[in-house]
């Protein structure tokens, strides 16, 4: 690419960041880094009535947890604090509101926008009247001269209303009988008949711009080269192209990402689906500041950020190969907008667990041990190096840190009970005598290592010419309390000779 790539992620601080938003941020981040460009975070908070305390910090924390810090943005947590960054700020639209009125006035002066004085009651009447006739009310070329605006009123009437402080909005004047030819990187060429477009409000009576005007002005002033956003903004593309044309500005390139669908493949995955379907839809846990309701997060549910980023990358994109496991650096190298699909991407909760299981195996055992230790009070006094050895034995069967205790509790405490079904299967007539003899064999072992234990005990079983199950099943039951867990000799080595004998004798006495 010949120009310096600049992309932006522009969420509204109205609550927690949905994973659909995280996916949008990720694709922007990958594209920017692929082309040695700049990843900008802009907070679109023009609608102050929907502002939620703590939402902006949540957005920043979520991006950082995912390993995608922004280069330019509204807080000191951004990596870049260069003069170039300052030149494009501020990055909250509420702090830029002094900019927008002049651009709205410029559109009025050029004849591309107009004042509209219609009251909400008047517009509501027209909507209901159209609905009663089976029609949809659209404010545009076919009725604008019948309504109260600066196109239908005289110059004197308009001036009088403005001087009197009457409420007004500024609407874009959509052209009549034209065909727009638009281009989207993902969706190709798009043709739009302007007769079906409405005259969107650009500036509201409260002195704040709507999303459409603020978005275009900010993207232009911040020199955004590529707008990569969700499919839900595709209907706005025609207006945005027309605004760039009206201002005489070069438009950025657009790419509209496919929807993330529910696991059934039907309907968009919403913020409410997580609680309904039993999996998180937010990167981090969120506590609603008003009702204190808590929504689950991937971080708190035990997912690794690398796993989340990896599975999100595959929601709507594929590398064109069989490879599924990608580090962030590999994703940057492989990413290309031309390989993003048009059709919606079905969210698969089981696949997210598959990715997390893989990344579990890649993690350093000591790091996992620290996380495990911090999650269980029972481990507070236990050496983390011992816990790391345990983790190495059991993590292959784990998907989350929260799985560790069930898979390993017997390494830290003796069984308090024995699985009833397993007990009936393992302890038969003669088992007690075999276990007592086994204790004698263990007492003779000087080198209490895994290899020696395996050699001595298996050799004894072979010499007695009995089935291995007659010894190994009750031995496992004695050590674990159930017929589960890693290799019996690994367990014996880890808990030690005295504890192994103690557990065998306890099982004999109990069973």
Brief characterization of the structure:
The chain has 511 residues and is mainly alpha-helical.
Structural overview:
It is built from 21 helices and 13 strands. The chain is mainly alpha-helical. Among the domains are: 97-214, Glutamyl-tRNA Synthetase, domain 3; 365-510, Orthogonal Bundle (Arc Repressor Mutant, subunit A). The strands form 6 sheets. The chain has a 3-stranded antiparallel β-sheet with strand order 3-4-7. A hairpin with a 3-residue loop joins strand 5 and strand 6 (188-193). The model is unreliable at 76-84 (pLDDT under 50). Monomer. It is an enzyme of class 6 (ligase). This is Glutamate--tRNA ligase. Its EC number is 6.1.1.17.
Helix content: 40-55%
- The CATH C-level name of the domain at 365-510 is Mainly Alpha
* Sheet with the most strands: spatial strand order: 3-4-7
Alpha-beta content class: mainly alpha
Query: In terms of per-residue confidence, which ranges show pLDDT below 50 for 5 or more consecutive residues?
Result: 76-84
pLDDT averaged residue by residue: 94
Strand content: 5-15%
CATH topology title of the domain at 365-510: Arc Repressor Mutant, subunit A
The biggest beta sheet reads:
3 strands, antiparallel
Q: Treating each run of at least 4 consecutive H or I residues as one helix, how many helices?
A: 21
Distance between the termini: 75 Å
Radius of gyration: 33 Å
CATH architecture of the domain at 365-510: Orthogonal Bundle
